[in-house]
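Progress note, sequence design subtask.
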């Protein structure tokens, strides 16, 4: 993922942020294979961030954008 972020000329700050949210998302769903992640899984994760971690809307949006980027990047790489 880091290589893909650099290939797309994302800033270092964006790279750090995306890697943080990707790691957080993967830890949250550590019992599921990555290809089983669905739209509902993303909704569950974002709900968890709001209810349990008390993140702001902008932080939630950042996590959402990161996961959307991951989904399109993985599809493009296949």
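Output:
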């Amino acid at each position: 993922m880091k290589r893909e972020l650099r290939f797309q000329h994302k800033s270092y700050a964006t790279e750090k942020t995306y890697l943080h949210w990707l790691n957080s998302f993967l830890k949250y769903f550590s019992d599921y294979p990555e290809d089983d992640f669905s739209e509902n899984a993303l909704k569950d994760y974002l709900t968890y961030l709001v209810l349990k971690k008390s993140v702001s809307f902008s932080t939630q949006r950042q996590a959402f954008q990161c996961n959307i980027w991951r989904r399109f990047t993985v599809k493009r790489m296949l």
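The chain has a mean pLDDT of 82. Work on this subtask will continue into the next period as scheduled.
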